[in-house]
Amino acid sequence: MKKLLLGLSIATIATSSAFAETYHPECFVPAPGTSIIEKSAKEGPYKIAFVNGFAGNDWRIAAIQASKAWAARPENAANIEKFTVVSVGNDSSAQIAAIDNFIAAGYDAITFIAVNPTAFEPVIRRAERAGTVLVPFDNVLDSDKIVQINESQFALGKLKAQTVMDELGGTAKKILMVNGLPGNATDRDRRLGMMSVLEKVDGLDIVEVVGNWDTGTSQKVVADALATHGQFDAVVSQHGSAGTINALQAANHPIVPMGVDGENGVRMLMADLKIPGVSAAQAPAMSAVALEAAVSLLQGHSLPQTVYLPIPQVKSKNLQAGVNYFPDLPKSFNTGTGFPSCFKPFSPQELLGQSIDNT
Amino acid sequence: MGDIWRSNQREVIAVIVLAILLTLYFSTHPSGPTTYVMTIWANQCLILGLAAIAQFFAVIVRGIDLSVGAVMALTNCIASYLIIGTGLEVAGGILVVLAVGITCGLINGMLVVFGRIQPIVATLATGSLFLGIALLLRPTPGGSIDYDISDVMTLDIFGIPTTLIFALGIITFFWLPLRKTGLGTGLYAVGSSEQAAYQSGISVEKVRLASFALGGFFAALAGLFFSFVTTTGDAGIGPNFTLNSIAAVVLGGVLLRGGIGTLTGALAGAFILKTISSLMFFSGLPPLAQPLLEGLILAGAIAIGGADVLRVKNRLEVFGK
């Protein structure tokens, strides 16, 4: 009996420690309650493809550049026989066909930004059969069978709201919330994250406007909000924050704490105007983390099924020109150039040297 | 022989272009023409092919259908609710989906025939309507399709892609017989000259209605195959398919002014367009150059088809054909 108990307790220790011991846990942070995925190791070098959907905005282009910059680094290039990028447009059947084509061509791993969260169940089964590793990121799937890479949108919203409340010492009367595209799961989760903090503040009046993640729209709706509501104690914005700051400036609104996105132009304004708060965003460099995850899986390391990457963020007092924002680069440049706990962030030269073409 | 060439010239050109592109595609693909690669290719092509056939039935009677994509989205969303469960439920679901497609086509046809509204306006309006219903059914992508029926329809039989067999079946057992019936002749008569068709005793109204209903039926089939490939419902799939279906029929030698062209040509045109898209996976072409290349091929194919207008001595010959 004693032996049995001992055996049991050892077994429990073994499983619980296995839970803690996924590969590189400070980067591949497990989402709460997620499972662990492990595959048998495969000999390198590997053939890897990145199947992007839509390619027509700055974020996607930055993601393509980051994936190429990752593949160009010598430590990664040694593991890669071939790296291919394609963009297939907003058509889920075309994205499925592209993934199928790479499976058929004997690729070892495929990363992708899913056009549709529910359409990939059959192709996941075909990849499983062929021994191909699939790693979706950014727009992830409703699946628990493959490793998925993302930031927690809830945590991102919560971070911004928490930072401005900390700046205000925990009390505020009126706060402005600039939301994203309505009806979208990302917008919903970020908003819920912000509300999780703000709802607990006594007597706080929360004014919400819809900025559609767009600089122009944000500027207009914030100007309207200022005209009707007067002054706010703080502002939190999902994306397009440059428009929000411009509207505040145009209305001669005093400088208040803000939670804003990670565009270069936003950080430039934040530094120039000495706005207290935080700049944080969904970083396009997660395309490189997804590739890193794919290679780790191929090498036989175990990873959490859902990874919530540590959110890259800069408090305004830590803003430093040339380090986390770049006054000589375009305002639209995305400062989400890396995840410091995963690997050294890319320098702007590393990224901008990459073409956006298919290779 | 000369007659056969002259009456099928456009289709023959389309099929030759397709054969060249296909050879190019299989020779650039790292794994060559395996069953798996053929199946991926055929699945992609057939979805657009069916949409192009739907468009063909509108264009052949001198119309145009801007609701093809919307009917696909609607039937895809309905399929994601109904094509699941026991074999009987799945079969019933497929019938309902096809019936919805025919109904959509009939609504289009009635607006055109009895409402006397231009097809381009009527189908623009009904397209928004169908899309609206699809969005109500599936505000966000979701639902699921029975995996067994999806596998049967999208894999292969003895190494030949099921979708390819299906495409050949449509030509052999539907189009060729239809061409010999009164309706088949009526389609061309109405498309060539409504007045002449009417005076020859053809019921122009019935032919138009039947043509739009057939269009709805094939749009529903396209939606159904899209469902089999993606196994989910998504209201956002429409716009791509509407425009590409028009491009495909033109590429397949169907004249937008009606009366000339065949279903086989429309199907070949769709296969050409999708083969061009597939070519880029392993060709290393930049994605932003792809629409340009597609446009060039489109313009080239139309130019070849239209070149005979320049050669004839009497232009009336062309119109009399």
Automatic annotation (TrEMBL), chain A:
Pfam families: Peripla_BP_4
Signal peptide range: 1-20
Molecular function in Gene Ontology: carbohydrate binding
Domain Periplasmic binding protein: 48-301
GO CC terms in record: cell envelope
Keywords for this protein: Signal
Keyword Methyltransferase: no
GO biological process: transmembrane transport
Species of the source: Marinomonas ushuaiensis DSM 15871
Keyword Signal belongs to the record: yes
Residues forming coiled coils: none
Top-level taxonomic group: Bacteria
Localization: Cell envelope
Recorded family membership: Belongs to the bacterial solute-binding protein 2 family.
Record-given protein name: Ribose ABC transporter substrate-binding protein
From TrEMBL, chain B:
Main location: membrane
Top-level lineage group: Bacteria
Record field: transmembrane: 12-28, 40-59, 66-84, 90-113, 120-137, 157-178, 209-229, 288-310
CDD domains: TM_PBP1_transp_AraH_like
Keyword Repeat part of the UniProt annotation: no
Keyword set includes Cell membrane: yes
Subunit (UniProt): The complex is composed of two ATP-binding proteins (LsrA), two transmembrane proteins (LsrC and LsrD) and a solute-binding protein (LsrB).
Described function: Part of the ABC transporter complex LsrABCD involved in autoinducer 2 (AI-2) import. Probably responsible for the translocation of the substrate across the membrane.
Record-stated family: Belongs to the binding-protein-dependent transport system permease family. AraH/RbsC subfamily.
Protein name: Autoinducer 2 import system permease protein LsrC
